[in-house]
Amino acid sequence: MVILGVESSCDDAAAAVIETTQPGVAIVRSSVVANQDAIHRRYGGIVPELASRNHVVTILPVIHEALETAGCELGDLDALAVTRGPGLVGSLLVGLMCVKGIAQSTGLPMVTVNHIEGHLLAPLIEHRVEMPYLALVVSGGHSALFIVEDFGSYRRIGRTRDDAAGEAFDKVAKMMGLGYPGGKVIDDLARRGNPARIKLPRARVRNAPFDFSFSGIKTAVAMLLADSSANAIEPADLAASFQEAVVDMLIRPTIAAAREHDIETIALTGGVAANSRLRSRLTETAAAEGRRVVAPALKYCTDNAAMIAIAGSWRLLRGERDPLDLDAEASLAL
User: Fold this and answer.
1) What is the pLDDT of residues 39-77, one digit of tens each?
2) Which of 22, 272, 309, 334 falls between 20 and 30 A from 81, CA-CA?
3) DSSP-assigned letters across all residues of 140-172
4) Is pLDDT above 90 for 320?
């Protein structure tokens, strides 16, 4: 089965073509992403209206490029998969309406996909992973722990109580005047810094050992920067110390959950999964306990359509399809 996937939940417009014969096993024939970093950089974060307007301009060219790279045309496709939510409703609508139009004109079956499910299954693009596995999903909008029991069966056991980890990276980078997107610039700068130089708080959520909280560390950095006596702090040391604290707060609940539920494989996914310190430390910590960490290649950590296609494939292979009157849902539950 050849599937065209389309993703537009936030600021990235993406399309991909995969070929599959069984759930969770696919060949990615193309994966194209048009990001809007240059547009949103001046604001230090994503402006929803600008994101959706730019999708109107880029979504069709991205789809055309994905088809061309895969060496196929619409007539060669067997099915379509598209993100329905959660995300920015304006952005979601652009991708969903575009795919609806393709389905209407071609008669191809279409399924809609939860964006979080896409991240949960993204490691399957390149790895063979036995279920159940534990998934740490960390991005600009989400920070949560799930047990992936089977295709379509996902149990959330931990979540952020306030900010997402990626949001904390972006906000701290903005406070430090480092630019956008914050995750990458902090990761790069932190390589030159001392992660033990500055003591920053590590939040724990009382009576919820698998939950996260990142608002406190963001406030701590803001107060530190406002203190005139802190002017001598090297930005690289602050970046490294902040990053180390966030990584600690992500790893501790994840390993605790793996122990509690006796799960050997941990999947690290989402945009923050591209963070080099998180990838290396989680892998080392898990390995010390005989556990395995799998993470997508960097291009499949951030929003992409290959993960949407593979997430929709298990339903398409069963012959399912969604009606064309489905609407986008900004707060779509998994």
Assistant:
1) 998 888 889 999 999 999 999 999 999 999 999 999 999
2) 272
3) SS-EEEEEEEETTEEEEEEEBSS--HHHHHHHH
4) yes
E runs forming strands in 186-312: 265-269, 292-294
* CB proximity list for 117: less than 8 A, separation 6 or greater: 154, 311, 334
- Per DSSP, the residues of 66-134 read HHHHHT--GGG--EEEEEEESS-HHHHHHHHHHHHHHHHHH---EEEEEHHHHHHHGGGGT---PSSEE
CB atoms within 10 A of CB 35: 17
Q: Are 159 and 212 in contact (CB under 8 A)?
A: yes
The pLDDT score that the predictor gives to residue 230 is 59
Q: What is the DSSP string of 222-256?
A: HHHHH-GGGTTS-HHHHHHHHHHHHHHHHHHHHHH
Helix (H, G, I), strand (E, B) or coil at 30: strand
Q: Give the span between the Cα atoms of 160 and 254, in whole angstroms.
A: 12
Domains of the chain: 2-121+301-317 (3.30.420.40), 130-295 (3.30.420.40)
Q: With a threshold of 0.85, does the pTM exceed it?
A: yes
